[in-house]
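Curious: why this fold?
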Amino acid sequence: QVEFVESGGGSVEPGGSLRLSCRASGFTFGAYSLNWYRQAPGKERELVANIFGGATYYAESAKGRFTISKDNSKNMVYLQMDDLKPEDTAVYYCIADGLNAYSGQGTQVTVSS
């Protein structure tokens, strides 16, 4: 059974940091391109960062502030978020390309003073 379980969200002040974690299971972890998406209230889900092999991609809004990484031995993918801004407030989801139907509950990130 494919599953993604996100954790690590919370409430922080602007300029703060959070590290999101995602535990994946039920598929060949190392063979898939992995993504962090986010969805803010009233907005469409947007891609934040991607990692496949040693290559990474970041949305313009995340460049220089967010870092995606993974541990194939643990089937874990992470998103280190620094210098958080109010506009980063959203529910964050991890998902592998082609496995969108198995999207998890996500983890809420709230940035406010």
About this structure: The CA atoms of residues 67 and 79 lie 6 Å apart.
